[in-house]
Amino acid sequence: MVFDGMRATKDFNGYVVFLEEDHYLSPDFLYMTEKLIALKEEKCTDCDFINLGMYTAVKGVSSLTHRVSVGIWNAGKNNMGFGINRKTWEQIKSCKEHFCTYDDYNWDWSINSMGQSCLQRNLKVLVVKAPRIFHIGNCGVHHRKECNERKDAQKVEQLLQSRRNTLFPESLHLDMGLNPGPSRKKVKPYGGWGDIRDRNLCLSFVDNALRTTL
């Protein structure tokens, strides 16, 4: 919809960052996004994504706030606060049949499979080593029963306050070498996406966006 279905952005070739309602952003999020885009365009033109978040522990990363690395897209690590441009979107769109019919209700694992099967390559991501996006949504089906999102947000605020002198780095340092991450063996899909109605709805989003502009 952003790239093909809205008048304001249908000719936009820059980057769009995917955020969810339970993501907490650091004060230098936009600043780091622009820095990361510039670095990608200069040093990693074949990277498919930029990534500003992670789920791993973030304590003791003050010395890493200016460092970034290149890795292979991992659905379990790189699905929070990632950005793409139109070039990457066109590649995803070219694999719409695979993406929309892959029997996995998780869109991120569908992207994983799309890269391996349809594009026949591993997708690459340029990622910050100190996150600028934090997940505070610890309630719900996949998380602990006892949760308090306000407390989780306060923890992030305290962390950012303690790290305030390391935010807004003047320049970024790219650690050389590709971080392969976990094994990129093909994984069995989780299921939940076998209903033809779901698959057709997914395909219709792409097709209708091309015909309708809001």
Please, could you describe this protein's structure?
It is a single-pass type II membrane protein. Belongs to the glycosyltransferase 16 (GT16) protein family. It is an enzyme of class 2 (transferase). This protein is an alpha/beta fold and 214 residues long. It is 34% helix and 16% strand. It is built from 6 helices and 8 strands. It has helices at 29-43, 86-94, 96-101, 107-118, 149-162, 196-211, and strands at 15-17, 23-25, 49-51, 67-72, 82-85, 124-128, 133-135, 173-179. The strands form 2 sheets. Strands 1-5-3-6-4-8 form a 6-stranded mixed β-sheet. A two-stranded antiparallel ribbon has the order 2-7. The protein is globular. 23% of the residues are buried.
Quick rundown:
This protein has 214 residues and is of the alpha/beta class.
Strand content: 15-25%
Mean pLDDT across residues: 87
Spatial strand order of the main sheet: 1-5-3-6-4-8
SSE string, helices as H and strands as E: EEHEEEHHHEEHEH
The dominant shape is globular
Provide the low-confidence segments as ranges.
none
Radius of gyration from CA coordinates: 18 Å
Major beta sheet summary: 6 strands, mixed
Structural class: alpha/beta
Distance between the termini: 9 Å
* Residues in helix, %: 25-40%
Count of runs of 4 or more consecutive helical residues? 6
**How many strands appear in the DSSP assignment?**
8
